[in-house]
């Protein structure tokens, strides 16, 4: 299981509602390729990026790294049974960029 961020990281900012605003978890300057992540890694990634409540949906649906890379926008918006606002952010700012990065790293 990977450790995506340290709770004392100065890049994190606690919001008034108790959620945490973080930069994307990185390894050696870039987000790691999720192709080999287990379900717990996916859950920890979303917890580390400020989606603590929504991370349980990935656990409940048994989404591992390979599944995450196959998810469509519709899967995230409707298949995980999470509120629309967080679902849009999860897809646009996390799932889609992880998919793009994975494709670029495997194309070379």
Automatic annotation (TrEMBL):
SMART domains: SAM. GO terms for molecular function: chromatin binding; histone binding. Residues 37-85 form the SAM domain. InterPro entries: PcG_chromatin_remod_factors, SAM, SAM/pointed_sf. Gene3D superfamilies: Transcription Factor, Ets-1. One of its GO terms (biological process) is negative regulation of DNA-templated transcription. PROSITE patterns: SAM_DOMAIN. Residues 1-34 are annotated as: Disordered. CDD domains: SAM_Atherin-like. This is SAM domain-containing protein. It comes from Pleuronectes platessa.
């Amino acid at each position: 299981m990977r450790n995506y961020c340290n709770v004392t990281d100065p890049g994190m900012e606690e919001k008034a509602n108790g959620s945490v605003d973080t930069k994307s978890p990185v390894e050696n300057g870039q987000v790691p390729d999720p192709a080999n992540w287990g379900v717990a890694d996916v859950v920890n990634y979303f917890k580390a990026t400020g989606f603590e409540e929504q991370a349980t949906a990935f656990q409940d649906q048994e989404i591992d790294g390979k599944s995450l890379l196959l998810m469509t926008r519709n899967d995230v918006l409707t298949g995980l049974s999470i509120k629309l606002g967080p679902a849009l952010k999860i897809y646009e700012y996390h799932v889609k960029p992880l998919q793009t990065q994975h494709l670029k790293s495997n194309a070379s």
